[in-house]
Design brief:
Elements lengths: L2 E6 L3 H10 L5 E7 L3 H10 L3 E3 L2 H7 L4 E4 L6 H10 L3 E4 L7 H14 L3 E3 L7 H11 L6 E11 L12 H4 L1 H5 L1 H12 L4 E9 L4 E10 L5 E9 L6 E9 L2 E9 L12 E5 L4 E4 L6 H14 L9 H20 L2
Parallel strand pairs: 1-2, 1-4, 2-3, 4-5, 5-6, 7-10
Antiparallel strand pairs: 7-11, 8-9, 9-10, 11-12, 12-13, 13-14
Helix pairs in contact: 4-5, 5-11, 9-11
Length: 332
């Protein structure tokens, strides 16, 4: 089966998805949609496909099986609902939306039209994060006690209305960055029972540009999430995962001046045991975005339900993340 695929939005993440999609024999990129003609035409030339400035023109002129929504977050609801009513399967980048009401309307449209839809919470497919979940689920180091996640990105001005540094269009790093790790900890431990956040606010940096969130889960497990948009030019993209268990601890740190584009760079996944010994675990060498797309394609071809990174789980992660923003604002 050859699935005709369109990329909607050719910013940094749209370019990444186009590159990944081009590696699958099951996919054919049949259209690129972007409001920037120069960027769109260049991308269409690279992937030998058609360029459109308008989504409706794409839908009218081509039979589409999958659409990849890589537009600014505030545009997700209208685009996803439009695609769903045209019976087109949807990959929507995270966060799913800015509000729960918008997310609910998107889920309703997807369910009503019986299309497959996934949201790009890629940590659920990132080899090191998957290895950590395997250790948790299989009780390899005993009961988890605490988890720490860190994510620091350089904030770049976006061409489309500079939307990421407009709090009303992105909700800042508190949503756009932090939701990655909030979603991951929910995947590990379930919904938190206590949420407390503090942050640094700057209107010119998208609002809450630095947030520290403490989460308390069932079984007395705690989580700490640090998320930041860093305005310093050439500051590296940072990810960190550390989990303490009864019988040891795991640690993984990622630092790249190439952002997500440096994801093929490998950093040690270290496990320390309570007796003082340590191991470097081998982790599957696979692109997390490729891994995610492989899962999505398999669900479409085999008509299987989207379980991992579903619209519903994305809505849940949005709900928890919005509570952290409320905590920052109210100091409660």
């Amino acid at each position: 089966m050859l699935l005709k695929t369109a990329i909607i939005g050719m910013g940094n993440i749209g370019k990444l998805h186009a590159e990944v999609c081009s590696k699958f024999n099951e996919l054919e990129i049949v259209g690129i949609v972007d409001t920037n003609k120069e960027i769109g035409i260049k991308a269409a030339e690279i992937y030998k496909t058609k360029f459109y400035t308008d989504l409706d023109d794409l839908i009218r002129n081509d039979k589409i099986d999958i659409a990849v929504v890589c537009t600014p977050t505030y545009l997700h609801p209208q685009i996803v609902k439009r695609l769903a009513y045209k019976k087109i399967n949807i990959y929507c980048e995270k966060p799913i939306a800015l509000t729960l009401k918008e997310a609910d309307s998107m889920i309703q449209a997807v369910r009503k039209n019986k299309v497959k839809a996934i949201v790009g919470h890629v940590l659920r497919f990132w080899p090191e994060y998957c290895k950590a979940k395997e250790i948790v689920d299989n009780n390899i180091l005993g009961k988890p006690i605490s988890a720490y996640c860190k994510r620091v990105c350089h904030i770049r001005g976006e061409a489309h209305k500079n939307w990421k540094i407009d709090e009303n269009l992105s909700d800042g790093a508190a949503l756009d960055v932090q939701i990655h790790d909030i979603d991951y900890l929910i995947w590990l431990f379930g919904n938190p029972v206590i949420i407390k956040s503090i942050g640094s606010y700057n209107k010119n940096l998208g609002g809450w540009f630095h947030v520290d969130t403490i989460l308390k889960f069932k079984n007395n497990i705690t989580g700490l999430v640090t998320a930041e948009w860093n305005p310093i030019k050439n500051f590296p993209f940072l990810m960190e995962l550390r989990i303490l268990f009864e019988a040891g601890a795991l640690e993984w740190k990622y630092a790249s001046n190439r952002g997500y584009e440096g994801r093929e760079e490998k950093f040690d996944f270290k496990v320390n045991y309570s007796d003082g010994t340590a191991d470097i675990y081998k982790v599957e060498n696979i692109d997390p975005y490729y891994n995610e797309w492989k899962y999505f394609i398999d669900c479409i071809i085999k008509n299987k339900p989207i379980i991992n990174s579903s619209m519903e789980s994305a809505r849940n992660s949005l709900s928890i993340t919005l509570q952290t923003i409320k905590s920052c604002k109210t100091h409660k």
